[in-house]
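Issue 218. Parser rejects a valid record. Input:
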Amino acid sequence: MLWLQRWNFVARARLERELWEAFEAGRDIEAMVAECGRAAGTDPAQRLRYEVWQTTCPRIRRIEAMMRNR
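Output the parser choked on:
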């Protein structure tokens, strides 16, 4: 059933929001993504989180840079 969750936009949005909230709290999101990647191993839920965070992290940094330049 996890393959279905990959296409579940609500589940993906929740995972993205976790990373956004960490960013807003001032945490090191790159370290969080790296730690998640190490923990992913054989756990399918962690692998999905890692996949979503891997794509979200650069997006957060791009938006941060755009806002800084305004």
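Fixed in the parser; the record now loads. Residues 44-68 form the longest helix (25 residues).
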